[in-house]
Amino acid sequence: MATTRTPRRTRSKNGPRLVVRPIRVEDLDAIQALHERAFKGDFAPWSRANLENHISLFPEGQLCVELDGEVVATSSSLIVDIEALGWEHTYEDVCQGGFLRRHDPHGDYLYGIDIAVDPRHRGMKLSRRLYDARKQYIMEHNLRGMIIGGWMTGLHR
Asked: How far, in Å, CA of 118 to CA of 116, rounded?
């Protein structure tokens, strides 16, 4: 399910400053480091194997925001068939150990499973940019909607 969407850029007078684009394998170390900062040990970030799996199954659903060439926000998603998954489900039912085995390219809903923003760049509406990219994908691919699930940082406290 390839998309022809080009990365979205916000320009400053000196050139591109913000870019929303699919993540690439060469981003994975930076993404894992970002997750460590963003989630502060509340849960383990995706392993490299998890992230590679996300990219291989649904590259268009794995997004990042670059600020001046640095990855400062990320999100992961998959497509699900809600009838097969069921409305009553757990995060683990969807993520299955961090591997997106529930991804169904013929499904009807985009399922957002995480968003991480580098604490140094919070307040810049980076999550909004990721949600806007998700909504654009939904419209372009005629999906019924978006479901969102994830861990809430600090909830256990």
From this structure: 7
